[in-house]
Amino acid sequence: MALTVKTLTSLAQETTVASGFIRDEDERPKVAYNAFSDDIPVISLAGIDDMDGRREAIRNNIVEACENWGIFQVVDHGVDQKLLSDMTRLARDFFALPPQAKLRFDMSGGKRGGFIVSSHLQGESVQDWREIVTYFSYPIRERDYSRWPDTPEGWKAVTEEYSEKLMGLACKLLEVLSEAMGLEKEALTKACVDMDQKVVVNYYPICPQPDLTLGLKRHTDPGTITLLLQDQVGGLQATRDNGKSWITVQPVQGAFVVNLGDHGHFLSNGRFKNADHQAVVNSNYSRLSIATFQNPAPNAPMYPLKIREGEKPVLEEPITFAEMYRRKMSKDLEISRMKKLAKEKKLQDLEKEKQLQETRGHTSLKEILA
Ligand SMILES: O=C(O)CCC(=O)C(=O)O
Fold it and tell me: Which residues form a coiled coil (predicted)?
């Protein structure tokens, strides 16, 4: 019998979600995808290069957002709107391709880049309701173009331009953050040694039971900063009380959501928050978002660049970014393994309890009949 190749887009036509996507109750969405909040500031970057003018006001707004949430949105960022709409249109066209065409770029088994359902990370116990395409775009000398989808026509060239422009914008923002820490402009980019960039295009198909699943589970990004382009549907959510309450970030046409990652958080000695976030899905619209992760080189040493008076260092000793990432991943996998074990134990206990009740039932029936 021929095996039918399934992607998530084909599963979206079903009326229930498969059990592999169902989250434990404590992880399920608490707030709707379109219950928008305006807590995350939208900051115009117009005048950012004007050293004696707007720059200081922009810096102050960014600092406040980083101290509160580790998230802000930027407009007037200088990246051409036509490039953003080309990138978005071509990405949507890719996800609309038949499963076989997408699976030509299958990235399972640890390949560096391409298409996959849910996540390329191995050992995840519950799947995310998303399809992704990942490009490893910097350093340029390490690009493997055989892993970059060549359909739809023109996407590869547009992605190249997109990643270059976003590298420029990220460096600009890192300059402002360096100044905010009282350091020279280049301090954060220098701390990255040789900056890596990874572009992840997320496609969240319509979901028949969005209350049971997540498009992307709760996490913080490991790197320095992430620039996220999202469409107008909504689904990005943030928490700053460890998942007790959530807000849905208001989509703003043409804006980038900037998330501070773990690396940025450690470099600032914890002064700037690492954005704790997730993506929810819905049964009305599919959603597209494009995350550009700006990461340090794997061997970049990680340590607070500035420890302010009265502060204790958040890291006891410098570790490399690769080591921090390894520890983070193994902690995540351990948590998910423990959760799985606890769930299995609960099921076994329930089963035992049921058997006990049945035995008691039989005994009392015998007593009645005796
Ligand atoms: O799609 C979103 O809104 C969130 C994406 C994200 O957090 C990620 O790709 O890491």
Answer: 333-360
| Cα-Cα-Cα-Cα dihedral sign, residues 139, 145, 147, 151 | positive
Distance 323 CA to ligand 1 centre (A): 23
Res 122: pLDDT: 65
Regarding the beta carbon of 202 and ligand 1, being less than 6 Å apart is answered yes
Residue 2 has pLDDT above 90, yes or no: no
What is the C-alpha to C-alpha distance for residues 182 and 188, in angstroms, rounded to an integer? 11
Distance of CA 289 from the midpoint of ligand 1 (Å): 7
In terms of Cβ atoms closer than 10 Å to its own Cβ (0-12, 13-18, 19+), residue 64 is: middle
Please count the helices (runs of H) and the strands (runs of E) in the chain: 8, 15
Ligand 1 neighbour 289 (Cβ under 6 A): yes
User: Is pLDDT at 123 greater than 70 in this prediction?
Assistant: no
Digit-coded pLDDT (tens) for 245-273 = 999 999 999 999 999 999 999 999 999 99
Those residues with Cβ within 8 angstroms of residue 246's Cβ, 6 or more apart along the chain or in another chain: 29, 30, 31, 237, 238, 239, 278
Distance from C-alpha of 263 to C-alpha of 222, rounded to nearest angstrom: 6
> Does residue 178 sit in helix, strand or coil?
helix
